[in-house]
Design brief:
640 residues; alpha+beta; 9-stranded antiparallel beta sheet; two-stranded parallel ribbon; 26 helices
Length: 640
């Protein structure tokens, strides 16, 4: 394992190590199971969690460094504790109880290539039979090993499962994950925009030395040796003390005051409230996890930062510059220039804007609203729900402040609504084009099989589109229009110079070109936009199916998934059969069936040439093939 991998870079984007195995395809006798005494007779969830907490091969919850865990907070803050419990932060990492596990462990058998997996439940325990590997330290003559699921990660979009290896508290990952939206098992790799390749990864120790940094509270890997950890946490999940800092002093003071009847010294609070911090320090609380960063030196733990402090005192915040390249080399001196370049390609667009979700601060920190104004993460987001107009689940989806989801409420606090009304937007009031964030925070970030809004607030620009290859906001809505069309409007409305465009960009719809000749990131963002309601309303949908079917046979799993989902959001294809992880011949047949159904429904396309259709309103195969020949095959391994 490289030095960089050893301090935990799944969160921050550098290389991953992997363990590959080639077990025989036929079922064989399993390895020796881990034997555990049955827990006492209590309710299912309590039994499961109590049993797991007491084991010596599961990461241990401890109170240290002033951390007292969220159980101490509920004593005085039951309402805040409840809203936190309603959030996905609270369920980011959980002990594998019947309440926490979402995947089907009802004697489920799955295959991944020639590899077999079996999942089952015993009382309140969850088990997996997986291909054996040497790092388990058991009988390597046994092709399969039975390991217990002890932790879960995620509950909103996807759920991962971590298995006790029996080597101290070191965990490995089940190579299969539960896709919540579809209620099905999928290969872990099929959830990410990563280079297509065979095999799978056990990723021994990944949870211990990587996920702990942001998916637990005060997680400490405690590395004992290669692939060997004695990991501890203050809380499984992202709990109160992740944002408010260690709570022991505060709890002790409050209990003393309650017992003695004294008065609190409000001039020297014993706990941090991020809402009362300056806008930059408040955002640093979020940035510790929602930004590209690593400790400033090798001898600092990733959890050394404390809320209220300046993040730069403990962490280097990566940007697309020489300082960050030097920091990467310091963390891992073995990196060569090509590897550094690949890391930066995966992290940033060429102008420094982040590519991946979960790194919002890395965009915000480049925004004038933050650098020159006082915008913070909490300008738009609220971590404890206060309104009753939304259900807890609706609020938890993005934790936006009440009334901010479909309005310009946050922007008009600083920008005059009169000055930036329809004369500025050139879109009708109340339309999707009149919402500030659709133009200035477009879906040019990718993650969780979705297009995500950029948190670097910018203005639409065809020139930037050409320079960075990042789709512009106008054409992410008006997918059926060309870059020439967009450049003309930006010139007319805002005096933007019209850049030099090639013949295709002058003549063909941007959505068509990004689908056919674009790189994998352009393709997946375009596919996502084809399923986005505002884009469907602006562009129409009756031309999209031939492009989506091309993307449905893409070599990247994520592109296939997103395009198939968007196809089902077209009125005539909402019942289409599609499985993005089916074998290639089956996928091809499904895609051809969609195209044939589309061809059987004659359409008159007034813009057929721009959409690359022939006189009969069918795809111009010669042009399709030419553009596919020009496809950008840049390799992507986007970190999430």
């Amino acid at each position: 394992m490289t030095a960089i991998a050893g301090i935990g870079l799944a969160v921050f984007g550098l290389r991953e190590t992997e363990t590959r195995v080639t077990p025989p395809p036929a079922p064989v006798a399993p390895g020796k199971p881990v034997l555990v005494e049955p827990p006492p007779s209590t309710p299912a969830t309590a039994k499961a969690t109590t049993q797991l907490r007491e084991r010596d091969d599961v990461p241990k919850q401890v109170q240290s460094d002033g951390y007292v865990s969220t159980s101490a907070c509920i004593e005085c803050h039951p309402d805040n504790h409840q809203t936190w419990s309603n959030s996905y932060h609270s369920k980011m990492t959980q002990l594998a109880s019947p309440e926490a596990v979402l995947g089907d462990f009802n004697n489920t058998e799955l295959t991944l290539g020639s590899h077999r997996f079996r999942l089952w439940k015993e009382r309140d325990e969850f088990w997996a039979e997986i291909p054996n590997f040497p790092e388990l330290g058991g009988d390597t003559n046994q092709p399969y090993a039975r390991l217990q699921v002890v932790l879960t990660t995620g509950s909103h979009h996807n759920q991962m499962y971590w298995l006790a290896t029996g080597n101290s508290r070191t965990l490995c990952r089940l190579p299969l994950a539960h896709r919540v939206e579809d209620n099905r098992w999928v290969p872990v790799r099929a959830l990410y925009l990563t280079e297509p390749r065979p095999g799978f990864e056990h990723q021994i120790g990944r949870w211990n030395n990587r996920c702990t940094q942001c998916h637990t509270t005060n997680g400490k890997p405690n590395e004992l040796g290669d692939h060997l950890y004695d990991t501890t946490v203050a809380d499984f999940g992202i709990s109160c003390e992740s944002c408010h800092g260690p709570g022991k002093a505060h709890v002790d003071e409050e209990r003393r005051l309650k017992a003695e009847g004294g008065q609190r010294d409000r001039s020297a609070p014993s706990i941090i409230n991020p809402a009362r911090l300056p806008h930059d320090r408040a955002s640093h609380v979020c940035a510790r996890c929602h930004g590209y960063s690593l400790p400033i030196s090798m001898d600092l733990p990733a959890t050394d930062f404390r809320p209220g402090e300046e993040l730069s005192k403990t962490h280097h915040i990566w940007k697309l510059n020489d300082a960050s390249r030097a920091h990467m080399r310091m963390i891992d001196p073995t990196l060569d220039e090509a590897e550094l370049d690949q890391i930066l390609v995966d992290l940033f667009w060429s102008d420094g804007e982040p590519k991946t979700a979960g790194r919002e601060f890395s965009g915000l920190v480049q925004t004038a609203c933050f650098t020159k104004g006082e915008m913070s993460c909490m300008t738009c987001h609220r971590l404890h729900q206060r309104d009753t107009d939304r259900t807890p689940k609706e609020w938890a989806d993005d934790q936006l402040r009440h009334g901010f989801r479909h309005s310009n409420a946050v922007c008009v606090k600083c920008h005059s609504e009169e000055k930036f009304g329809t004369a500025h937007t050139h879109h009708a009031k109340g339309s999707s084009g009149s919402l500030c964030y659709n133009c200035h925070m477009p879906h040019t970030t990718y993650g969780l099989l979705n297009g995500i809004r950029s948190h670097k607030i910018t203005s639409p620009s065809v020139q930037v589109n050409l320079d960075t290859r990042r789709p512009n906001a106008c054409n992410l809505c008006h997918l059926d229009q060309s870059l020439q069309w967009t450049a003309g409007h930006l010139n007319e409305w805002y005096k933007h110079p019209i850049p030099e465009l090639d013949k295709d960009d002058q003549s063909y719809a941007a959505g068509a070109l990004w689908s056919l000749r674009g790189d994998a990131l352009q393709r997946v963002l375009t596919a996502w936009s084809m399923g986005w309601k505002p884009a469907q309303e602006a562009s129409g949908t009756d031309w999209m199916a031939p492009y989506l079917t091309k993307l449905m046979t893409d070599n990247y799993d994520a592109v296939r998934y997103v395009s198939g989902r968007s196809l089902k959001r077209l009125p005539e294809f909402n019942n289409a059969r599609w499985d993005y992880i089916a074998p290639p011949p089956i996928r091809d047949r499904m895609a051809k069936a969609v195209v044939q159904e589309w061809l059987n429904q004659p359409r008159a396309h007034p813009d057929k040439e721009r959409l690359i259709f022939n006189e009969a309103g069918q795809p111009n195969q010669r042009e399709f093939e030419r553009l596919l020949e020009d496809r950008d095959h840049t390799v992507f391994n986007l970190p999430e």
